[in-house]
From TrEMBL:
Pfam families: T2SSE. It comes from Candidatus Collierbacteria bacterium RIFOXYD1_FULL_40_9. This is AAA+ ATPase domain-containing protein. Residues 126-257 form the AAA+ ATPase domain. One of its GO terms (molecular function) is ATP binding. It comes from the Bacteria. InterPro entries: AAA+_ATPase (IPR003593), P-loop_NTPase (IPR027417), PilT/PilU (IPR006321), T2SS/T4SS_dom (IPR001482), T4SS_GSP_E_ATPase (IPR050921). Belongs to the GSP E family.
Length: 355
């Protein structure tokens, strides 16, 4: 089916630096730029039939059958000369709708993204478990792609990614990269994670930890001497640890705490914050797992982790509020905006001297 309309829409979105495209009936397509949704005014209001035609026209036959059976699907689109999109098609009020996240062709480096310098250290780890967390749309995949890109360029390893769907494409550099997509290359997370250890990996990227089975598999792969990266939809380092542990049955939690305390190496929690000039900037919270942190995890004292982060800036750690305060002090972010995004607004006020 002709997808010229979506190519036109995608071209316009990419040119204006958009992150997402929304298509549904009853409105013109919407484009999210710097966190704000704006109408694509070169289009008329879409009918239910037109919305369905556009979205189904981007799928292959197997994807169509899965979508019509399951009523939702994740898939990827590669538009020559424009870029890649991670797509989610779904029904709302009986109408076919879709959201499309732009994935740049070029994987940006840690320095290009202005990530904290400590991220270079994560690319040097030989084993362990590193998490990047945050709400949807905060650049978790982009951050991990940059770290994996650095490993790919600087080390001779076998990197295996398991994604739903594949987002950034990693070409073989010094390392050999195997990228597996749910549905196309493997039938389930369970199958792919059970077989990954037989594929002689050094580094494993799990697109998202969705349930206790995925979490357990990630920790087990790390425990067997591999470097594992993954993501969670959580707001802070302490909350991420609690989310993992609370996902398991009560009787399993002591063993999970012990295992997590042994394999976890770092957590990066991030947010994209609106700036005064209408763009967005990345704010991060960094936890480096030291012996003191391991003890706190093992003893289920996650409430003490914020204090460890706050007093360990010399090790590269910082709370989200430290990052927010820095942007406010540099005149990049309005104080009221920073307070809206703060997890600990009282602390942010203190860091800003109560001004």
């Amino acid at each position: 089916m002709d997808n010229s309309f979506f190519r036109e829409l995608a071209t316009a979105a990419v040119k204006q630096g958009a992150s997402d495209i929304h298509i549904t009936s009853g409105t013109v397509p919407l484009i999210r730029t710097h966190g704000k949704l704006e109408p694509y005014l070169l289009s008329s209001v879409l009918t239910a039939e037109k919305s369905k035609e556009i979205i189904l026209g981007l799928m292959n036959q197997n994807q169509k059958e899965t979508f019509l059976r399951e009523l939702e699907i994740d898939f990827s689109i590669n538009l020559a000369g424009i870029g890649r999109f991670r797509a989610n098609a779904y029904f709302q009020k009986g109408v076919v709708s879709g959201t499309f996240r732009y994935i740049p062709d070029k994987v940006l480096s840690i320095d290009d993204l202005r990530l904290p310098d400590v991220c270079h250290a994560f690319a040097k780890l030989r084993q362990g478990f590193v998490l990047v967390t945050g709400p949807t749309g905060t650049g978790k995949s982009t951050t991990l792609a940059a770290i994996i890109h650095e490993i790919n360029e600087t080390r001779q390893e076998h990197i295996v990614t398991i994604e739903d769907p594949i987002e950034f494409i990693h070409e073989n550099k010094n390392s050999f990269v195997t990228q597996r997509e749910l549905g196309g290359d493997t039938k389930s997370w369970d199958n792919s994670l059970r077989s990954v250890l037989r594929q002689d990996p050094n580094v494993v990227f799990i697109g998202e930890m969705r349930d206790p089975d995925t979490m357990q598999a990630a920790m087990t792969v790390a425990e067997t001497g591999h470097l594992v990266f993954s993501t969670l939809h959580t707001n802070s380092a302490a909350q991420s640890i609690e989310r993992i542990v609370d996902s398991f049955k009560t009787e399993e939690q002591p063993q999970v705490l012990l295992q997590l305390s042994m394999v976890l190496e770092a957590i990066v929690s991030q947010r994209l914050i609106p700036t005064i000039d209408g763009k967005r900037v990345l704010a991060t919270e960094i936890l480096i797992v030291t012996p003191a942190v391991r003890n706190n995890i093992r003893e289920s004292k996650t409430f003490q982790i914020d204090n460890i982060i706050q007093t360990s800036g010399n090790l590269g750690m910082r709370l989200l509020e430290n990052s927010l305060a820095e942007y406010v002090n540099r005149g990049m972010v309005d104080k009221n905006v920073a307070l809206e995004y703060a997890i600990r607004p009282t602390l942010l006020n203190k860091l800003l001297g109560g001004r």
